[in-house]
Task: inverse folding
């Protein structure tokens, strides 16, 4: 199968949560990892809802629709989780949390749009998955879950503000950024053989990585940072090989 050429668009399943009220901006600023108060009306940013230990509860897209009205986009299976987590931490904040229904479209390599199909060729699930893997875009339940540190998946570069005020998980996120290091990182790999999520990668007989998503010829996986970029990796339990892009 050939790689997708631009323009291409894909329908993206999402759950949507309205966060609105007099305290909406302040409440979200204290709850998520990015600087939502800095958003102008009509702008959006990516963010994370985290535990106090910086484990990912849910990845979010935050759209500011008015000074006191925000729309959160997350994965379909996480809508109730996000609403319940925010409801339990709302306390006396004047904010409403209500699910909404919308249609989301993603321009591959570009913007995510609501309720308006953008121009371009629509691709199906298989083509979208190949694009996602080749672009190194992590997916909940594959590359992101409550065991993954944001920096391991590269989310510290896209979903986190290091200049905003406090939010759950801020301290371990900052320690990781300024005083620590990660042992593994998400990488795109060219692969040969029948590859599947969960396959272990080896170098010189030692396990150094794990595949998280795969389509024929290319995969995503976590690989230890000390593995050289020009190394050829093999699979622990089956024929085949992989090389880092």
Result:
């Amino acid at each position: 199968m050939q790689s997708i050429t631009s323009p291409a668009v894909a329908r993206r399943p999402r759950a949507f949560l309205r966060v609105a009220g007099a305290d909406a901006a302040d409440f979200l600023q204290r709850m998520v990892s990015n600087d939502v108060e800095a958003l102008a009306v009509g702008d959006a940013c990516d963010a994370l809802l985290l535990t106090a230990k910086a484990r990912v509860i849910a990845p979010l897209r935050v759209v500011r629709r008015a000074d006191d009205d925000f729309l959160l986009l997350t994965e379909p299976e996480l809508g109730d989780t996000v609403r319940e987590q925010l409801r339990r931490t709302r306390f006396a904040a004047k904010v409403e949390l209500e699910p909404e229904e919308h249609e989301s479209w993603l321009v591959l390599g570009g913007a995510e749009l609501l309720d308006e199909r953008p121009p371009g060729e629509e691709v199906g699930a298989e083509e979208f998955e190949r694009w996602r893997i080749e672009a190194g875009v992590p997916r909940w339940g594959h590359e992101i879950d409550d065991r993954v540190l944001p920096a391991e998946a590269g989310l510290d570069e896209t979903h986190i503000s290091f200049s905003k005020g406090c939010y759950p998980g801020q301290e371990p996120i900052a320690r990781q950024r300024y005083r620590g290091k990660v042992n593994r990182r998400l990488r795109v790999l060219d692969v040969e053989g029948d590859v599947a999520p969960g396959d272990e990668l080896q170098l010189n007989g030692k396990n150094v990585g794990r595949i998280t998503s795969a389509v024929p010829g290319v995969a995503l996986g976590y690989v230890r940072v000390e593995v050289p970029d020009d190394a050829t990796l093999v699979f622990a339990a089956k024929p085949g090989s992989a090389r880092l892009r």
User: Anything to note?
Assistant: The first strand starts at residue 8 and ends at 11. The helical segments are 24-31, 79-88, 125-135, 170-178. The longest helix spans residues 125-135.
